[in-house]
């Protein structure tokens, strides 16, 4: 790891005068980093400070390298570097920011949207954390087709960017902020058309919560999400709200039909998980309550 550290310091010192040489040095350093230092001894107290130190160096190298590459417009390289870095550190938001920004610059709008949704859903599910203002800002760029303010929009390109892949089936999965906007849209549509829309809150309840591991609860949430995406229709919307709950919008259904959908979801879930350990608690109400 001495060479790794030395390459970092050399690159950092020459970057202002020789950015190309610094880029090469940073890349050489990244090639040396294979993950947490002495991972096999991860429970030894003496290893922790050293491991954290080298991990911080790794993070700084990725960020410094991406900044230099961005200055030269080398976005394809940023995409490759961030993909490698995210495998090692999945929750470093700055990695995802550079990755999304590079995807937008390369015109990969659909990939950027898919990655953004995956990342923010993982944040909610695993850490209970909201995306930062910077991530919300880049999300607005993704929704706008990757364009910065003031850029002229072409209608054919806009439509092409918003087309879903043919293989995409089932419900629309989104983050809570998008869900809120879609809720408001359905509320306004319902006022105009009288179309029935139901809001559903699904909560995973653990009768013996103290005996349930975080891994088990994470698997339960992931499984429920998969059931929701595959069991519901394209017009329905789902969003993971926290580590235990999903919000769902069910459109164009009667009350009895909506109740039948929830029963089917519960039955599918019980085929995968023991109901004595985890259960689905559901609450259902119309978006526009009867007067």
From TrEMBL:
TM spans (from-to): none
Highest taxon of source: Bacteria
Domain Bacterial transcriptional activator positions: 2-143
InterPro entries per UniProt: AfsR-DnrI-RedD_regulator (IPR051677), BTAD (IPR005158), Rev_trsase/Diguanyl_cyclase (IPR043128), TPR-like_helical_dom_sf (IPR011990)
One Pfam entry name: BTAD
Name under which the protein is recorded: Bacterial transcriptional activator domain-containing protein
Organism this protein belongs to: Candidatus Syntrophonatronum acetioxidans
Classification of source organism: Bacteria, Bacillati, Bacillota, Clostridia, Eubacteriales
């Amino acid at each position: 790891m001495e060479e790794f550290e030395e390459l970092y310091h050399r690159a950092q010192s020459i970057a202002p005068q020789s950015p190309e040489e610094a880029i090469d040095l940073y890349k050489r350093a990244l090639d040396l980093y294979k993950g947490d230092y002495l991972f096999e001894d991860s429970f030894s107290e003496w290893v922790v400070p050293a491991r954290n130190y080298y991990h911080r160096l790794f993070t700084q190298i990725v960020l410094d390298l991406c900044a230099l590459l961005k200055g030269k417009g080398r976005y394809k390289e940023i995409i490759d570097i961030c993909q490698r870095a995210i495998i090692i550190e999945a929750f470093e938001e700055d990695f995802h920011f550079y990755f999304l920004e590079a995807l937008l610059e390369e015109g990969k709008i659909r990939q950027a949207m898919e990655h953004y949704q995956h990342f923010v859903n993982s944040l909610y599910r695993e850490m209970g954390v909201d995306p930062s203002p910077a991530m919300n800002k880049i999300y607005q760029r993704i929704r706008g087709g990757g364009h910065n303010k003031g850029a002229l929009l072409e209608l054919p390109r806009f439509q092409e960017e918003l087309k879903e892949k043919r293989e995409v089936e089932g419900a629309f999965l989104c983050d809570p902020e998008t869900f809120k906007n879609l809720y408001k849209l359905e509320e306004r549509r319902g006022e105009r058309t009288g179309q029935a829309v139901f809001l559903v809150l699904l909560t995973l309840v653990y009768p013996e919560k103290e005996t349930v591991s975080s891994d088990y609860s994470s698997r339960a949430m992931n499984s429920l999400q998969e059931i929701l995406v595959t069991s519901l229709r394209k017009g329905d919307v789902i969003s993971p709200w926290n580590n235990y709950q999903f919000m769902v919008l069910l459109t164009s259904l009667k009350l009895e039909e909506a109740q039948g959908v929830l029963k089917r979801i519960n039955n599918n879930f019980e085929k995968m998980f023991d109901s004595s350990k985890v259960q689905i608690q559901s609450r259902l109400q119309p978006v526009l309550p009867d007067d």
